[in-house]
Amino acid sequence: MSGSGSEASHGTRRLTTSAMIASIAAPGQRTAPAPFGRALVELARSRPEIVGLTADLAKYTDLHVFAQAFPDRFYQMGMSEQLLMMAAAGLAREGALPFVTTYAVFASRRAYDFISMAIAEEGLNVKIVCALPGLTSGYGPSHQATEDIAILRGMPQLTIIDPCDAHEIAAAVPAVAAHPGPVYMRLLRGNVPHVLDGYDYRFEIGKATSLRNGKDVLVIATGLATMRALEAAEALDADGIGVEVLHIATIKPLDEAAILAAAAKDRRLVVVAENHTVIGGLGEAVAGLLLREGITPRFRQIALPDAFLDAGALPTLHERYGLSVSSMAQRIKKWL
Amino acid sequence: MREIINHQEGSTTPTARQRSDTPRGTFAGSNVPLVERAYRIRRHALRMGEVQGQGYIAQALGIADVLAVAYFHALRFRPDDVHWEGRDRFLLSIGHYAIALYAALIEAGVLPESEIETYGADGSRLPMSGMAAYTPGMEISGGSLGHGLGIGVGMALGLKRKHSDCLVYTLFSDGELNEGSIWEAVMGAAHWRLDNLIGLVDVNDQQADGPSSAISSREPLADRFRAFGWHVQRVDGNDIGALVAAFDMARTVAEAQPRIIICDTKLAKGVPFLETRERNHFLRVEPDEWQRAIGVLDLAFHAEGGR
Ligand SMILES: Cc1ncc(C[n+]2csc(CCOP(=O)(O)OP(=O)(O)O)c2C)c(N)n1
């Protein structure tokens, strides 16, 4: 896949490329290599029941690190995403703890029924970890999982996690392994930015955390959008606009109490920001919760449009579709 | 059989034999030799790769001979009217091979050569992954692998409904053989006796994580297709003479069954220093190597008496 694993070293590469693999790191941002693969290897040393499975995407989901460390616990299933899920279900039935990787599009679109019936309905202990979530590939709709959460949120018994950075991915791996039942985790792969280690933050499944306070706006954000929202908040701060950022790492089940408490406070504008289509993701989940509970602040969504998105360079596309720091800050300002 | 179509008996659809073996390809009478077409397809692809400093160039170089024979011997189409109803359909199931198809479409005059400069850039009609909405002559959107053959089944059925003599070619890859959807299509095509469907599978023995043969047992591939009810040929996909014969056979053979041409190709074919580089799904090419590769290609072509 385009430029895999070398995003940092390709200084000469044109910035305007509709490549499959593109970096989400801003120039100069601190990154960690393959945080998922490394954390899994670390954990697997003391958990012999952990196995890794992929559908011809080990190199591109950082599972190759695990495959190299534990070749006899790694199953290359070939580019067969349906078999991938069925086989993971079978291994889980026999006592293994499978970590399964592919791209988010292929798990959510192609393998949906197999995740639902072979894994989730039976509450099996399978951890599905998927790269290229939302708009993190410039390759076009085939690789842009803009609706994976909408697809999977309706699946009963499935825990859904959208980590923000390398720090959180590393913390999520042992937590996900300790959590009984099926989990879908969105994965940032390759050289992943480090952001949350600068905050007083501890990852816990099902728990929302306020990362900064602000009197004017509450931004409820998840995944990549949290990273961008934190920077946008800094920029708005300079303009005298106070922004709280409430980070939601677990999209399902939602930390309803934390969201309700924050949204009820100070009659602030509430903005939900996510790296996902405007339909069926965190934004609509929060909107439904607030309405059900009779809390009706002014409410806006920062999310991808309900459309098959363009191919192009990621910075271009993030600007076009509102996921860049500057476009986030501008829109929030306009809504105030 | 089914009510909607009956192409076994009493059908007005021309049988394969009636289609005759006189060349039907739009460019079949051209005096440009196919080796020159293949050379130029490789050259266009290398130039596109140079524009971005990346691209699936090993695949493009490997499949160039198949595309040369498809577009400049076999296919009936109109370069200036890509939606012409009478065209043979060519489906690129492997969207990442778009760089190769763009090169063939440029050589055929469907796309202007000047667009090479835009390859993969924002706003270009030539994105890195092939998509129908972007590029004239790109029939389907690829990228999510395992779609092309099944869509080909539907188009072959649709053409029969219209009593059309157009053929459907689908180019897919050995990696795609891992997908269950391919085998659903293989069975469906045989069930419906789709003699207007010609599958082309590029066996370059490479997929994302490594050699295809190490990832999933593929062989005996010809026997597998035969057992599923297909007319099977297996050829050296870099031998233009063998490809011409195979395409002619696939078009004219009488059996009421779908046809497959298994094409064994060599990654990076035609540029020896890339052929021998460490095998990789995404071949690394250094910035100065694109011109070097074009130079090697030019030299070899002219040495062999090319123009
Ligand atoms: C359904 C699906 N699963 C996974 C991928 C990711 N992927 C892109 S190319 C590729 C390898 C496919 O094999 P092949 O086309 O034989 O590879 P090549 O010959 O180009 O090396 C994979 C797994 C995809 N595009 N679609």
Task: Give an overview of the whole structure.
The complex is a heterodimer of chains A (336) and B (307). Chain A is 35% helix and 20% strand. In chain A, helix 3 (81-93) runs parallel beside helix 5 (112-120). By secondary structure, chain A is α/β, with parallel strands linked by helices. In chain A, the strands form three sheets. In chain A, strands 3-2-4-5-7-6-12 form a seven-stranded mixed beta sheet, sandwiched between helices. A five-stranded mixed beta sheet of chain A has the order 9-11-10-13-14, with helices on both faces. Chain A is globular. Chain A folds into two domains: 27-193, Rossmann fold (3-Layer(aba) Sandwich), CATH 3.40.50; 206-335, 3-Layer(aba) Sandwich (Rossmann fold), CATH 3.40.50.920. In chain B, helix 1 packs antiparallel against helix 10 (289-303) and helix 2 runs parallel beside helix 3. Chain B has helices at 34-52, 57-74, 98-107, 148-161, 180-191, 212-215, 221-227, 240-252, 272-275, 289-303; strands spanning 89-92, 168-173, 197-203, 231-236, 259-264. Chain B has one domain: Rossmann fold, CATH 3.40.50. Chain B has a five-stranded parallel beta sheet, sandwiched between helices. In chain B, helix 8 (240-252) links the parallel strand 4 (231-236) and strand 5 (259-264). The radius of gyration of chain B is 19 Å and the shape is globular. Chains A and B meet through helix 3 and helix 4 of A and loops of B. Thiamine diphosphate sits between chains B (59, 94, 96, 143-146, 173-176, 204, 206-208, 212, 281) and A (56-57, 79, 106, 110).
